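hey so i finally got around to running the thing on that chain from the lab meeting. sorry it took forever, my laptop kept dying and i had to restart like 3 times. anyway pasting the input first so we r on the same page abt which one it is
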Amino acid sequence: MPKFEKDSKKNLLEETVVSISRVTKVTKGGRHFRFSATVVVGNRKGLVGIGTGKANEVPEAIKKAIQAANKNVIKIALIDNRTIPHDATAKVGRAEVLIKPAKVGTGVIAGGAARAVLELAGVKDIVSKSLGSNTKINVAKATLEALKMQKTPERVAELRGKKVEEL
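ok and heres what got predicted. didnt touch it at all, straight out
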């Protein structure tokens, strides 16, 4: 039975290719070219994942990246199905991403890889700033890390052993 649920979940996930790059391995016989792809998958309702894949051809690399992303899907905390509970900053490599909740109607204010991750996660109102390096893979991973840090008021109350009203 769980296998059926997993298949249905995969069918509901949308995917967006964040980056495709050509990587080169230099050997004494010459240069060997391969392709590396980074893909973000999500259902726009709180599930999102990132994956990378390498292959000799672009479509194969994208397929591998989608498989890796489906394995790494996480659930994120959303308030009113539109924004995040609080500010967060995450750093991956030299890329640092700051995300802040926003008022209704603000939209997704983010660029590049961060926008792809936030949109597929289902965040509708958010302000994001990319600090440091703008490497697409690291910015996407940092955005995901910042989303992982989010805690709902219910979760904070549970951790402190109090009721939501006491906070």
